[in-house]
Inverse folding.
């Protein structure tokens, strides 16, 4: 039986400062498996900001329903 894929990664980069909200599911309880398959892994949301240099970044894990203000060049994963 096929175990399923690795899911989808949405990587969005801000081009200007903005307010961003996330409303997602399956962050506490994993998605159910079907046709005898096992449950999948839980999803995750992250705000990613650069710290001075492009090579340094800070990853902040966001909860399933959250809101933040992002600066230009920040990312949402």
């Amino acid at each position: 039986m096929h175990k399923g894929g690795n899911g989808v990664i949405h990587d969005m980069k801000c081009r200007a400062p903005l307010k961003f909200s996330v409303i997602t599911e399956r962050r506490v309880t994993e998605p159910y498996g079907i046709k005898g398959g096992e449950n999948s892994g839980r999803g995750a949301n992250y705000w990613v900001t650069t710290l001075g240099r492009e090579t340094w970044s800070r990853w902040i894990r966001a909860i399933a329903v959250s809101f933040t203000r992002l600066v230009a060049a920040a990312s949402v994963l």
